[in-house]
Structure formats: structure tokens, C-alpha cells
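Structure in, sequence out. Go:
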């Protein structure tokens, strides 16, 4: 059996390797579900980048603002994580439960109400109830984007990295309905 010289084989192998990622990145089927709009989400994310940056608050200012009349401290972690520990006064509405109806029930009818958010990645403890997530996947990011997408535009995010011992941290039993709970 004749052997191909390595010099002839290298371009063939290299071509195959370079073509593989391109083929793998093409969707198997086009996105046709009208209830899923990835491009719209990407657009919304880009549109909100500067707004989010301007709505990051240091802990001391965050603490002062959540104490103001009408302020809502929203914890969008799971009910179990919320029950294990959360900032005192927080209302729990899990991110996976965000709908127009659930948000209106938890936040109220005023879409300009000031909403303050935090997540696991605001804490250095990196253990339950606040194990750190991968930084690009921190829950604050999709929570901020989704609240804006639902029309709640007065959203403020805790910017600092803290220890749970440095905040008014409480634990509560799970709410009977598992959706919205308040201390």
C-alpha cells in the first residue's frame, strides 16, 4: 500500500480540523419558535450595558436605598437558597418564575418602583447559601436584563463583594407557595 508523505497529509488533516468547528457552530435547525428570541435577548443585553453599569451601587448606598419607602429588595435565587439565608427584608421571586403576572404580584403595579438586586456572587463566603457562580453567569446579570425586559426600569444592583457576616442576613422557612416570600 502506498504511503502519503507527511507534507501531503498535513494540509488534509489541517483542513478537516478547521472545517469541524465551522460545521459544529451551524444550527441543526433554524430557530422558528416565535416564543424564543435569542437575537432580541442579545440586543436587549447590549442596549442595557451602559445602564447596568450606571446602576451599580456600593454596599453603604445600597443599604441606605433599600431602607427607603417603596424600595423593594428582590432576591431571585431559588426558594431553598432564599430560606437558607438572605438579606433581611428581601422578597423572593425565583428567576425561573419571572412572568408578567408573577412580577406584578411580587413588585406591585408601579413599574418605576425602585428594585434592588443581589446574588451569590456578591459574597466572598462561596458556601451555602451563597456558593459563587461562574462570573459571566452571575444571577444579577440575567435578573437585571429580564426585569428591564418586563418593563421594570428602576433596577439597581449591589456592586460590592461582601461576607454574609457583614450584612443583615436571615434565614426563614420556605413559603407555602414557593414563589414570593417576605420576612
Amino acid at each position: 500500500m502506498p504511503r502519503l508523505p507527511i507534507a501531503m497529509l498535513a494540509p488534509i488533516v489541517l483542513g478537516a480540523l478547521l472545517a469541524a468547528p465551522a460545521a459544529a457552530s451551524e444550527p441543526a435547525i433554524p430557530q422558528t419558535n416565535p416564543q424564543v428570541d435569542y437575537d432580541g435577548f442579545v440586543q436587549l443585553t447590549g442596549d442595557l450595558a451602559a445602564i447596568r453599569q450606571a446602576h451599580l451601587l456600593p454596599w453603604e448606598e445600597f443599604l441606605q436605598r433599600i431602607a427607603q419607602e417603596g424600595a423593594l429588595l428582590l432576591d431571585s435565587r431559588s426558594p431553598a437558597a432564599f430560606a437558607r439565608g438572605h438579606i433581611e427584608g428581601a422578597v423572593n421571586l425565583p428567576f425561573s418564575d419571572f412572568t408578567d403576572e408573577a412580577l406584578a404580584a411580587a413588585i406591585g403595579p408601579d413599574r418605576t418602583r425602585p428594585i434592588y438586586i443581589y446574588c451569590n456572587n456578591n459574597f466572598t463566603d462561596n458556601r451555602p447559601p451563597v456558593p459563587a457562580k461562574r462570573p459571566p453567569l452571575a444571577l444579577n446579570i440575567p435578573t437585571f436584563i429580564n426585569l428591564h425586559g418586563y418593563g421594570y426600569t428602576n433596577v439597581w444592583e449591589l456592586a460590592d463583594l461582601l461576607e454574609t457576616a457583614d450584612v443583615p442576613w436571615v434565614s426563614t422557612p420556605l413559603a407555602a407557595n414557593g414563589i414570593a416570600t417576605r420576612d
